[in-house]
């Protein structure tokens, strides 16, 4: 299950809407081992394409280093599909390489209603998981008690 | 040429969980060969058909090696080599 704050969901959807019809992409970092998404980082889609996305490799190195320095990891890796449903494509699955990440897909094909779904993708196997949107993590069951909640 | 190599989570099964390891070589290809001799199986995850696998990014210091000669990019003593999974996908 992905437990995620509403403001982060809103920000991912806003990013996807803004970049529509191109695919938008990014990460939400959180304390290592906490499974708690805290800090959203919009990434450049180096492909600037309605059918493909790729993190800009130079930007990715900077962002991954910053996470490393802050003892964070990518808790959520998100991208949008702008003409199809929010389900991982074959390409998405072949590239999925963060076994601890929640892969979030936002579909913007409907201009009025967005679709947001979350998956685990491990060794090529896609497993959809429920998404619980919360106002704050204070009363949500995320991570360990030893990791302070920032949200 | 001794370099420090950062290993991403997905490949740490090859390095007994270590986040960073040492390797030797004067080019990226040589470093990868040396890595593979110490941590069997790593090369197959990094190299395909004589080039860098499209699923990974490799950096020498701050430079994506795809822009500086690929596997033939030179590596100097004390450089750091970072391996990251490429993050990509699309609707098809």
Automatic annotation (TrEMBL), chain A:
Transmembrane segments: none
Molecular function as annotated in GO: metalloexopeptidase activity; zinc ion binding
GO cellular component, one term: proteasome complex
InterPro entries from the UniProt entry: JAB_dom_prok, JAMM/MPN+_dom, MPN, VirAsm_ModProt
PROSITE patterns with a match to the protein in the record: MPN
Pathway: Amino-acid biosynthesis; L-cysteine biosynthesis
E.C. designation(s): 3.13.1.6
Pfam family, one: Prok-JAB
Reactions listed under catalytic activity: [CysO sulfur-carrier protein]-Gly-NH-CH2-C(O)-S-L-Cys + H2O = [CysO sulfur-carrier protein]-C-terminal Gly-Gly + L-cysteine + H(+)
Gene3D superfamilies, per database record: Cytidine Deaminase, domain 2
Domain called MPN: residue spans: 2-125
SUPFAM superfamilies from the UniProt entry: JAB1/MPN domain
CDD domains tied to this protein: MPN_like
Enzyme class: hydrolase
BP terms from Gene Ontology: cysteine biosynthetic process; proteolysis
This protein's UniProt keywords: Amino-acid biosynthesis, Cysteine biosynthesis, Hydrolase, Metal-binding, Metalloprotease, Protease, Proteasome, Zinc
Similarity section: Belongs to the peptidase M67A family.
Function: Protease that hydrolyzes the covalent CysO-cysteine adduct synthesized by CysM to release L-cysteine and regenerate CysO.
Protein name in UniProt: CysO-cysteine peptidase
Organism: Actinopolyspora mzabensis
UniProtKB/TrEMBL annotation, chain B:
One family name in Pfam for this protein: ThiS
CDD domains: Ubl_CysO_like
Protein name: Molybdopterin converting factor, small subunit
Native source species: Actinopolyspora alba
